UniProtKB/TrEMBL annotation:
It comes from the Bacteria. Signal peptide: none annotated. Residues 681-690 have a biased composition (Low complexity). This is Beta-galactosidase. It comes from Streptomyces flavalbus. Residues 672-692 are annotated as: Disordered. Its EC number is 3.2.1.23. Belongs to the glycosyl hydrolase 2 family. PROSITE patterns: GLYCOSYL_HYDROL_F2_1 (PS00719), GLYCOSYL_HYDROL_F2_2 (PS00608).
Length: 958
């Protein structure tokens, strides 16, 4: 290093130590009877291009910041400021957006000076001390109060406190915070997300009365054999603990054992308590539970768990990672309503209030440390901070800040060392420290393949096959690992359309005890609201390096609307299994780990051709977890012959709960009774050539030369003709590092997006018009011989398509069906799967019924446009004055743009409705898979080129 010539010292920015001047970490709590002052709001703000551009004069009282801009705290400055006035977000998955030369950072280091003036409230006590708390600042801060520097810190998503009592004045306090975007800490924060500098969580001034509570640790275990809870609260400042609901009043450090209701995510019983030290009363909520690995299984309160989890980054499309309480609550409610029972706080401790909500509503939490050094993978992990003793104090500081802050949450059952940081002595040191500090929880880290440092075996994105092998204990590995349960800390990559194959994972989880579930990647798309693009993703801010829309891979769209992926997941993980039993009965299995079924009511409805004919309730015993019962369905009401009939049985909430109202559907199934009859048509019309080069057949006219359908019952049509192309999904495109077949690319190479239709002949027979074609891409020797056979009675027209593949097809087809365009479509009505989209491996939530939508309502708004919106199992659809029936049932898609337009679009705003509606009627679809980061489509969901025949009957809507 060469000495700097500027007067301002910025050495702390590149210093690997965690910081200077901060207080030791301690338990976090929302409120107590001690006064506090939230310093959120409008702060004066000045942005500089480098860390040393400005001196520290701004921190002195009396400094005139009148000419400065303003930002909202909590917030990220790059998401504020008009038209990028404060710079813009940068998205990279794992690449460091600066040269890798730890601990150095670029000279171009956006630095935001923040200023806040405040007076103490009139009732602020004159005695005692005060603490200034920052709950989250990215990535490095230097703090002054009233002109005196109090310290510096790093560790963006962790709290940092300073003792400031001696510096406070009743009025005219000046809090100055200098925040640097890049610091040595950035090397430890290489998570797959936007780089977003700023004071993005609360800033609070806390009064600390004489003998106020310091750190405290609530130990609350549950013994499932005795039904008793054991409570002991260790407290730095001695005092008393009272739990009125349990009649307890004990000294800190004293142990009491009493009968209690345990805490579980399904039954989140919390006991209100108070920790009273001589100077402060802190309200607590105590949940009793015991976490252990026993007999190779992860158990809580003596019972094995099945995680139905999600990975949650903090995200809001306008505010980034600065989340308000209502948004956090919305996340928790959405999770509970979609049968999610667990959260991994990928990849950093969340705002602490989120954990309060997890305690309250009931979610298992893996709390993950703010640590990822993934970018070192590009350099064979050379210089990885987790294997360099100089960084170990920073790692231990992060571990301690997480554990001390969050240790009193019953919802937290595991500590995670971090994510994708390779391996090294620093991680081992973190694990050892955590194990010593908290013996009541497990340690998780996916990067530790030997499980030396961890208590569970954790993997991300293993293929189904390998998952099954692990389930069967045939995976090998170290002796320790072989004795541990497996959790998938990430699986089911929810990028764009998908993920496919979730149900197949769930069946494995349910079959093998060792597989204790997983966490879908991830909860929400990190799209940034953008005036011109709808939602922006990587590259939209002109970043030099970026990873495109890999940042939009959530089960929620950026505005928190559930995507079809979440609806699929909800169905796949429903905690009650309802199946057809023998002889007109239904079999119900309680798939909860702890709760009986007393919170649920069971209803049935009997449906005839998709319309409800009768409804009723079913009485079930309050089954314990794992138990099943069969109950008889009533005698079905009479339905005319030739109608499709089925039962829909639902498990609904019997009463309002804190997370959803009465009648909310938790689980459902459909049990077919009589099948849908195929449409019939007796070809009575004869194809009649006319003078105008047309052929008339029943209600239709055709071009005599090409055999193309021109009008049907007076409506002009384009097509139908064979179509095999879909706008590749993110999962079709696959991830760049995927070794095997990535069909998005292979399909394009083969030319499936530019198929040529060769006309081989138009033949008229007595009762049919047959058009012979061969559909194939230029330069290829594979093709699809395709005939269209048209028949009609007086009013209806039947198209039978026969497809025979020619040549050696090595690739599956994206889809197989016909495409046509209609001039005008208002509403669409159909009888089939709905209400949302479905594909072969994402169809669990598709329910057979009658549905209605606008064409726009059929679209799924993936942030990057791609194939979407297919409805499965469609018996008939009505649109644009036509009724189309299928034999067999078909997949239906309609949109105001062509597949080619959809394929070319980068953002939803690129899609402009044309003057026609494009309709795909598909005999088959290729599955979706999860190859954007994980396995591709399982063989059973692939659409292999094979001979096929399917037909549609078209008629004017009656
Ligand atoms: C994982 C990683 C996540 C995310 C995901 C892909 O490897 O842990 O942070 O990058 O892949 O979206």
């Amino acid at each position: 290093m060469y000495p700097r010539t500027t007067a301002t010292t910025t050495d702390y920015v590149e210093d690997v130590s965690p910081g200077t001047g901060t207080l030791p970490p301690r338990a976090w709590y929302r409120a107590s009877d001690a006064k506090s002052l939230l310093l959120n709001g409008d702060w004066r703000f000045r942005l500089s291009p480098t860390a040393d551009a400005e001196d520290d004069a701004f921190a002195a009282p009396g400094y005139d910041a009148g000419g400065w801009a303003e930002v909202t705290v909590p917030g990220h400055w790059v998401l504020q400021g008009d038209d990028g006035a404060f710079g813009s977000p940068v998205y990279t998955n794992h690449l460091y957006p600066f040269p890798v030369d730890p601990p150095h950072v670029p000279t171009e280091n956006p630095t935001g000076d923040h200023l806040r003036h405040f007076d103490l409230p009139a009732d602020w006590p004159a005695d005692g001390d005060a603490v200034l708390r920052f709950d989250g600042v990215e990535s490095c801060a230097r703090v002054w109060l009233n002109g005196t520097e109090v310290g510096t810190f790093k560790g963006s998503r962790l709290p940092h406190e300073f003792a400031v009592g001696a510096l406070l004045r009743p009025t005219g306090n000046v809090l100055a915070v200098r925040v640097h975007q890049w610091s040595a800490g950035s090397y430890l924060e290489d998570q797959d997300q936007w780089w977003l500098p700023g004071i993005f969580r609360d800033v609070t001034l806390l009064h600390r009365p004489e003998r106020a509570a310091g750190d405290f640790f609530v130990h609350a275990a549950y013994d499932h054999r005795t039904g008793e809870g054991t409570l002991r609260v260790d407290s730095e400042v001695p005092g008393r603990v009272t739990v009125p609901g349990l009649g307890l009043d004990l000294a800190t450090g004293e142990t009491a054992t009493v009968p209690v209701e345990p805490w579980t995510a399904e039954t989140p019983t919390l006991y209100d308590a108070v920790l009273a030290t001589p100077g402060e009363r802190v309200p607590l909520r105590v949940g009793f539970r015991t976490v252990a690995v026993e007999d190779g299984l992860l158990k809580v309160n003596g019972r094995p768990l099945l995680f139905r989890g999600v990975n949650r980054h903090e995200w809001h499309p306008e505010r980034g990672r600065a989340l308000d309480l209502e948004t956090m609550r919305q996340d928790v409610l959405l999770m509970k309503r979609h049968n999610v029972n667990a959260v991994r706080t990928s990849h950093y401790p969340p705002h602490p209030a989120f954990l309060d909500l997890c305690d309250e509503y009931g979610l298992w939490v893996i709390d993950e440390c703010d640590l990822e050094t993934h970018g070192f993978v590009e350099h064979d992990w050379r210089d990885n901070p987790v294997d360099d003793d100089r960084w170990t104090p920073a790692l231990l500081d992060r571990a301690a800040r997480m554990v001390e802050r969050d240790k009193n949450h019953p919802s937290v059952v595991m500590w995670s060392l971090g994510n994708e940081a390779g391996t090294g002595r620093g991680l081992t040191a973190m694990a050892e420290w955590i194990h010593a500090r908290d013996t009541s929880r497990l340690v998780h880290y996916e990067g530790d393949a030997t499980c030396r440092d961890t208590d569970v075996y954790s993997r991300m994105y293993p293929f189904h096959e390998e998952t099954e092998l692990i389930g069967r204990g045939l995976d090998g590995g170290t002796h320790k690992r072989r004795g541990l349960p497996l959790i998938l800390c990430e699986y089911g990559h929810a990028m764009g359309n998908g993920p496919g194959g979730l149900a197949d994972y769930q069946r494995l989880f349910e079959r093998y005890d060792r597989l204790q579930g997983g966490f879908v990647w991830e909860w929400i798309d990190h799209g940034v609201r953008h005036p011109g693009l709808g939602y922006a993703y990587g590259g939209d801010f002109g970043e030099e390096l970026h990873d495109g829309n890999f940042v939009c891979d959530g089960l929620l769209f950026p505005d928190r609307t559930p995507s079809p992926g979440l609806l699929e997941y909800r169905k796949v993980i429903e905690p009650v299994r309802i199946e057809g039993g023998g002889d007109g009965s239904v079999r119900v299995t309680n798939g909860h780990d702890f709760a009986d079924l007393s919170a649920l009511a069971f209803t049935w409805s009997y449906e005839v051709d998709g319309e409800t004919a009768a409804t009723g309730t079913l009485a079930l015993p309050p089954l314990a977890p794992g138990e099943s019962a069969e109950v008889k369905l009533p005698e079905p009401p009479d339905a005319p012959a030739g109608r499709e009939t089925l039962w829909t049985v639902r498990a609904v909430l019997a009463e309002d709960t804190p997370w959803a109202p009465k009648d909310h559907v938790v689980a459902w199934t459909q049990l077919p009774r009589t099948p849908h009859p195929a449409p019939t048509l007796t070809p009575t019309a004869r194809p009649a050539p006319a003078a105008d080069d047309r052929i008339h057949l029943g209600p239709a006219t055709f071009d005599a030369r090409t055999g193309a359908l021109l009008t049907l019952s007076g409506t002009e049509l384009t097509g139908p003709r064979l179509d095999v192309w879909r706008a590749p999904t993110d999962n079709d495109e696959g991830a760049p590092w995927q070794p095997d077949a990535r069909y998005g690319t292979l399909w394009r190479e083969l030319g499936l997006h530019r198929m040529r239709h060769r006309l081989d002949g138009v033949r008229l027979t007595d009762d049919a018009l047959t058009v012979h074609t061969r559909v194939a891409p230029a330069a290829a020797d594979v093709g699809l011989r395709t005939t269209y056979r048209w028949e009609a009675d007086g009013e209806r027209l039947r198209l039978t398509v026969a497809v025979t593949p020619e040549g050696h097809w090595t690739l599956p087809l994206p889809r197989l069906g016909v495409r046509l365009a209609l001039p005008e479509v208002d509403r669409v009505r159909w009888y089939g799967g709905g209400p949302g989209e479905a594909y072969p491996d994402t169809r669990s939530a598709s329910r057979l019924s009658r549905w209605e939508s606008s064409v726009d309502g059929l679209q799924t708004p993936y942030v990057r446009p791609q194939e979407n919106g297919a409805r499965a199992d469609v018996r008939w659809v009505e649109l644009g004055g036509l009724r189309i029936e299928g034999d067999p049932a078909f997949w239906f898609t309609a949109r105001r743009w062509t597949t080619e337009h959809l394929d070319a679009a980068a953002h939803l705003t690129d899609l402009a409705p044309g003057d026609r509606v494009w309709v795909n009627l598909d005999h088959a679809q290729h599955g979706i898979g999860s190859q954007s980061c994980g396995p591709g489509v399982l063989p059973r969901y692939e659409l292999r080129a094979a001979p096929a025949e399917f037909s549609f009957v078209f008629a004017r809507r009656g």
